[in-house]
Amino acid sequence: MLNLTPGQRRFLRAQAHSLSPVVLIGDAGLTAGVMKEIEHSLTSHELLKIKVASGDREQREIMLGKICAALEAAPAQHIGKTLVIYKPAKKPRLILPED
User: How far apart are alpha carbons 16 and 6 in whole angstroms?
Assistant: First the structure.
């Protein structure tokens, strides 16, 4: 899992503000198909907003951890039922601040 500084997370949250959720995790939870779609979308977008149908905050935290660990990504934000994750592309389009 990538580690981000508070300044980098703040930058990514600002970038994600205007994004629409690309992936929806439904009642079936974090299935193999959903993980594959998240991986594909991260490769295309670098910064990804995910909507989770589950009402349990703890369950969403666990999902966020599993996603980031499996895909070597970094959690940028978890607010309500929305998760924001980041994984730099081979040729990054987003330049993270050093701080």
Answer: 15
Count structural domains, the chain.
1
Two tokens, residue 78: 């978890």
Q: How far apart are CA 58 and CA 88, in angstroms?
A: 27
Q: What is the pTM of this model?
A: 0.91
In terms of residue numbers, what domain contains 20? 6-86
The CATH number of residue 18's host domain is: 3.30.110.60
Residue 98 within any structural domain of the chain: no
Nearest-5° Cα angle at 43, 3 to 47: 50
How many other C-beta atoms lie within 10 A of the C-beta of residue 89? 13
Please write the tens of the pLDDT for every residue from 28-79: 889 999 999 999 999 999 999 999 998 889 999 999 999 999 999 999 999 9
Distance CA 70, CA 67 (A): 5
The count of residues in the chain is 99
